[in-house]
Structure prediction request, 324 residues.
Amino acid sequence: MNIHYLTHPKIDKPQWDALITASEQGQVYALSWYLDMVSPGWDAVVELDAAGKYKTLMPVPWRKKLGMPYVKQPLFCQQLGVYTLAESIPAVTYQQFWAEVQQRFKYVVGYQFNTDNQLTQEMAQEQTYTLYLHLNKAYEELRHHYTRDRKINLKRAEKAGLRLQQSQDIEPLIQFFKSETADRIYGGVSEEAYNLLRKLYVAMQERGLAQLYYTVDAEGRKNAGCLFTVWRNRIVYLFNAAPAHGRKQNGRTLLLDHIIRKYAHQNFILDFESPDDREPDIVHFYRGFGAQTMLIPVLKYNRLPQSIKLIRELRTRLVQRLRG
Prediction:
């Protein structure tokens, strides 16, 4: 196998994007412009074909702290992994690609592959998941598979007279999240994360990939917001938030139902970007639309010196104590 580790300046981005677009596993997360935003300076492992062209790719999002490089899954990028033009990905490809990462990094906080990647049990130490809803059925059939709770809450939203409003202003959505959700997230949310979301939204808008919706109540107040990105056959539920009165009026249920209705009977997958079991209420909400679990392999390791491991552990304990 003709495998190479490429530092960022050596990556042929037009060739990269052509492969991601053509690959069976292709996702918006893996496009070069998206990676440039969520992980500036990212590297890659590539396999070349006999003609020296890209055949198989794996982005490597890395950062540096205290002078030490490490790999970490970027924000707004739930899946990465291996993408190929080949019909299948042999186990040896995953092993050799990951070996290239292990040679260069002593610490991988967590690297999430994509749902089409089938790692061997020996490789995949952990797994998380997302939830997919295949929309290639009539809307009536899709709605039939909503849970009783979801059907009831959808009717409540409709009776509340909520209006859907497509928008190009992401600020209300960010403010909803800041005021209602951010405080519940371990470690908090930095202003840098919000600025990244703003930049991503502009970049997706420019490429015609963003769909931002709000629900508006009878008093004219925005009461829920959802940002979707649509690329190829995948709709990613990238970001959402609602104030307290919006949650009571089930605005997000109405917005998700709108997307399902809009793309029903087409070859689209709605990816809820589900959190793991630490957020059971959110997972239960998404499953209520009939979504199915899709596993995401996760690789991580820590080969840092023991002294640095101890410093990290003490810092984690301090943060937990400060947050009560």
